[in-house]
Amino acid sequence: MLYYLLEDYASCLVLTLQSIPATLVPGDGIGPEITAAVVEILDALGKPFTWDIQQGGMAAIEKSGDPLPAALLDSIRRTRLALKGPLATPVGSGFRSVNVRLREEFKLYANLRPARTLISGGRYEDIDIVLVRENLEGLYVAFEHYIPIDGDPHAVAISSGVNTRAGSRRIAEFAFDYALKNGRKKVTIVHKANVLKALTGIFLETAYQVAKKYEGRVAVDDRIVDACAMQLVLKPWQFDVIVTTNLFGDILSDEIAGLVGGLGMAPGANIGVDAAIFEAVHGSAPDIAGKGVANPLALLLATGLMLDHVGRSDAAVKLRAAIDATLRDDGIRTGDLGGKATTRDMTQSIVRRLSNA
Ligand code: NAI
Q: N or C: which end of the chain has fewer CB within 10 A?
């Protein structure tokens, strides 16, 4: 009897360990198609997550009048973990970007954007760069106003950026910690401290203070943002982990996505103390929504980051291997990657690879 009870307990424990509660937001446009593909692929990987499905974005406006309903926020407060499809922000409606609101609500201070070559034969081979962007401060606090002069209400535009010592320290620690835990060799601090001496000077100074704690374990250097943008095109292999402020990170992370085949391949993680939200970097792609041709890989790669985050790197490694094999050996590619495959073709191929692993 005791044996059976113990066995039951053990299987419950395994189940709990294997299936982690997480919020799933299908999102707008191609969102429902690519999230359906990801869920099917994760099922083949042993269902590592138990989904609480919630609506956000336009889909939620239609239902509840709010693009970020309380039920969605409550769900993330409970699970502290979410996979989010792209959310369309209505233009000119007065709604603030749902993505920005989510970042602020859960204080998701670190944006992690890895870029790795998955398809050879492109402009660059063997790219493997991780960009860590500060997500809450800098010029994106958007303290902005106009000064009217001579009847022109927009004669002067003023924007103030805010970087704090604490915020700079927190993101630098995240970057160096990430480097250490993931076997990375170097962190490059990107800034514009030669001109924005206070705003990005504090970031550079603080990041170097943090770097001292990692001396001998993770190397450090720095680049001015414009030089970094050029070097990323000329000689991207010199970069390993990059840490930078909000606006520079926004721009450079799209640049590194471009080095490895564009937005359809770019995952992102927004990580805070209380929650973590994983997503594709691309938007809702209304031009191809409903056609069954969207590339699900960016969201799937984001799921890989989510598995790493919850300590299931074993599953993440399998998932990435199945993606590599689908692209490289099966030659399955959606339109954005120059192929003719549908979302379904790609999903089935990855599921097959996982089932045969
Ligand atoms: P977008 O990223 O949706 O589309 C840009 C181009 O890339 C389009 O030609 C689209 O067809 C293509 N594309 C994007 N994802 C693809 C995929 N997985 N497979 C194949 N092709 C893909 O950017 P856009 O058009 O500027 O934005 C559309 C909406 O998405 C807007 O409402 C915007 O606010 C929202 N958006 C949401 C984001 C998020 O939720 N994280 C991020 C960026 C935009």
A: N
